[in-house]
Design goal:
By secondary structure, the protein is an alpha+beta fold. It has two domains: about 1-55, no CATH class; about 60-133, no CATH class. The chain has five helices and four strands; from the N terminus they run E-E-E-E-H-H-H-H-H.
């Protein structure tokens, strides 16, 4: 299967491609684009623009987005676990455990106990750092 980069709402590709192989048996799992510096810069710019939009968004709306993302992860858990198992050479049970701890509640941003806390506290924006070497 061939994948593309999702940057600023658009699927991009066309640069050099990398093969992803099962670490256990060497079988080809898929082909992914190698992100170029321009792709990283575009992704960071898009994320910075989105940060302002999300910061102004009411907590309940941010929570809706996180809960929808968690629901999609749960819905697609088997396919995601198969992909993780194939590319990492892991057993399905381990791939599921790595991907869906607490049945997807962690991916909701709320965690196992999150419903006990105020939604504003659970949807604060966090920064992600990317290290380029």
């Amino acid at each position: 299967m061939e994948y593309k980069l999702l940057i600023d709402g658009q699927w991009l590709g066309g640069g050099s491609m990398l093969e992803v192989r099962n670490k256990y048996n060497g079988e080809l799992v898929g082909v992914v684009p190698a992100a170029r510096k321009e792709d990283l810069d575009a992704a960071i710019d898009a994320a910075e623009r989105a940060e302002d939009v999300i910061a102004d968004m009411p907590a309940y709306k941010r929570a809706e987005i996180l809960l929808k993302a968690a629901a999609l992860l749960r819905e697609r858990a088997d396919n995601l676990a198969k992909t993780i198992a194939a590319e990492a050479g892991k057993a399905m049970k381990l791939a599921r455990a790595d991907h869906m701890p607490y049945g997807g509640n962690r991916q909701s941003g709320l965690g196992r106990e999150g419903v006990k806390f105020a939604m504003e506290d659970m949807t604060n924006i966090q920064m992600v750092a990317i290290r380029l070497t």
